[in-house]
Predict the structure.
Amino acid sequence: MIYVIDGSLESLLCAVFEWFERKPGKIMLQLEKYYQPDAFTTEFHVYKDRKKADRVWTGLKKKLDRGWMRRFYCTFLSESAQAYSSLFEFTCYIFSNPAGSEGNYGNAHVLAVAQTARKVEREKHRMEAFIRFQHSADGIFYCVIDPDFNVLPLIMNHFKNRYADQQWIIYDLKRHYGLYYNLEKAEEVNLTPEEEKNLQKTTGELHAIKENLYATLWKDYFKSTNIAARKNTKLHVQHVPKRYWKYLTEKMDT
Amino acid sequence: MSERIREKLNILADAAKYDVSCSSSGGTRKNDNKGLGDSHASGICHTYTEDGRCVSLLKILLTNHCIYDCAFCVSRKSNDIERAAFTVEEVVSLTINFYRRNFIEGLFLSSGIFKNADFTMERLLKVVKKLRLEERFNGYIHLKTIPGASEELIREAGLYADRMSINLEMPTEKGLKLLAPEKSHEDVKRPLGFVQNQIVQFNDEKKLIKSTPKFVPAGQSTQMVIGATPETDKDIMHTADAFYKNFSLKRVYYSGYIPISHDNRLPLIGTQPPLIRENRLYQTDWLMRFYGFNVNELLNDANPHLDVDIDPKLSWALRNLQFFPIDINVAAYKMILRIPGIGVSSAKKIVQARKFGKLRIDQLKKIGVAYNRAKHFIKCADTPYQLKDYQGTQIKSFILAESQSKYLKNDVQQLILF
Ligand code: SF4
């Protein structure tokens, strides 16, 4: 039996709901966009129903503490098909077992959710560390990213609290949406492909000069604070994997 | 103008880099004045230097002019180097502009001593006051306490800084006297003690009056230079232990000496810094702070030096085989923490998971236990029956043979130096 979901949180939760209604035994979870029907397995399209999803979510909240609800959400944001399956199995396991069962790290699904959540949290933390804003002519600090996981929802509060007195945009090029903070609140923005391109250019002569000065100073600092006698490239790359270098002002050639 | 500021930054960042502390953790400042910045309790490393150290703060000296002549220090009076000094405005503007672009968590400001201690402390104070009061900056500030500065100045600085530190420099008084006759550990203890008392006092007051301001909320730290003077690892860690206890320090840093002088009291220029030793000291420090080890268990008269080829936890285990094997399905958490190959997070998972049934080898591996190392010290549900007891030296050779130890290759080079 295959359950086909569209990849939204709602559809995932509804899949759990349907499973408990029907108890079809072992099922496989598949994402609509990858799903290819075959003649041998029966399929079941999970229809989204806000009410059902809410019931599952509320039920989960009764059984799990905030830390585990966060892990659940983080694992969901990893966007991987494997993670959705783990979440499905995990949720069924939690509902079928006494309170406290999430502590059973000997269970493969519990462990999978904990470990995936950790990866997502690490990516979130990396974005908080590696994002570099540029100050543009219109007064907005902006940055484009393409994180491994969908971490914008997780980093919003951090940047909102930190940069409460400056306007900023963080735009996810991979997922084509961003966050814009207008000194009041942060909201989701979607840009046209044209606008996305513009976002990646520096604007305005005057600002370019000032931005270049700070970029140069930062690069200078990065060099000065290094101790050549301790050079350890392996450790360096372990902490700042190469795929993040494109974000980093200090790694850009002048 | 921009050329001059670049020059200053290069000189004053270069001179500050030997202070290895870069932590931005323990900050508690919230951005509730709609100003700039807040502190992230666990700190953030925004990048790493090419030597693999965290860069979290803009770490600079206000000036590298100094009236002292400490032999181990690049800024010493007799050293023929370029000197520079930032203005208060320059430091503030650099900090704010770096912070707004998400380059840093905040500022780590230190200074050579120009004129006298009070004069220097006063200038440092001006910078932090301007940041906090005029710029409404809530990011992290680590400020050096200048030994000998008046208590009023130190107290005022503590109202604006998140962390304060004074470096012991050499692990023992004797070592310090050898290289910096004008200095003493007493000069460090007095202000450390003063700040420590103030922290306690402010915290007591806070319990009664909620509006009591914060005072050095991220606590104090210190640094010792390793390998410049002939102290043993035991000397070093016993000093560290005493300072952790007596002054409630948040961190002690160990900084492998980088030769910067032809002074014949010091290792020659070009000598490799003792990086493995430094690493072992940090591991020992962790075992004391997070794994419940007493410093005497790790370093004592019979074992005054840490092993170079294996980590201190494994060394301890091999010296104390009478405690092993430990049955991970019944042993207390604090014993599980002592098993080589099991870290804090695996130990926590184990005590949770075993409530649901006896744990097996494959589960331990998945949980994150370094099983090849741990297997010599544990029993679990399906541990194979073992006929013979191995000696510590045998276990050590098994582990060394198995682990492609990242240190092992460097060790060859290191050992020649000792
Ligand atoms: S007082 Fe400080 S800056 Fe001056 S020489 Fe000694 S260690 Fe260096």
